[in-house]
Design a protein that fits this description.
By secondary structure, the protein is mostly beta strands. It contains one helix and 19 strands. Strands 1, 3, 5, 7, 8, 10, 11, 13, 14, 16 and 17 form an eleven-stranded parallel sheet that branches. Strand 18 and strand 19 form a beta hairpin. The chain starts with a strand and ends with a helix.
Length: 171
Amino acid sequence: MPVIKPVRGKSPIIPQDCFIADNATVVGEVSMGNQCSVWFSAVVRGDVNFIKMGNKVNVQDGAVIHGTYKTASTTIGNNVSIGHNALVHGCTIHDNVLIGMGAIIMDGCIIESNSIIAAGAVLTKNTLVKAGSIYAGVPAKKVKDISPELVSGEINRIANNYIEYSSWFKD
């Protein structure tokens, strides 16, 4: 069974059509939109600040979503994929974003819509990723503009695939 529990009187809000893996953890002030999924060993920890997720957000295996006490909540838009072992901390992610495997997004970062953060990238505190950008490296920098083909071919494809994958685990 997943760990889903209140913290300091605030309980996660998880719609019926969401999938939470058996060993995932979702605690505290977390609200999820429709068709979200939290995969194996992932942690969504709304204990020190709130976490708000839109529709069609997938938090892949081993990823961690958290915030900073009293200063940095985490807001995630619609159609967002957070790759395996990524760390998303106290930031804002707009719609149609792909966060690559092992990427780190620090407090105060804003990732605008239709963007990709490459695997292993580290966005340092307060980085602004403009809409339609691809960022990579340590520290992450813009490497190019995203093509419309990448939005539909990668960002949308991955988000939709995770809705399908989660259906395999539902009764």
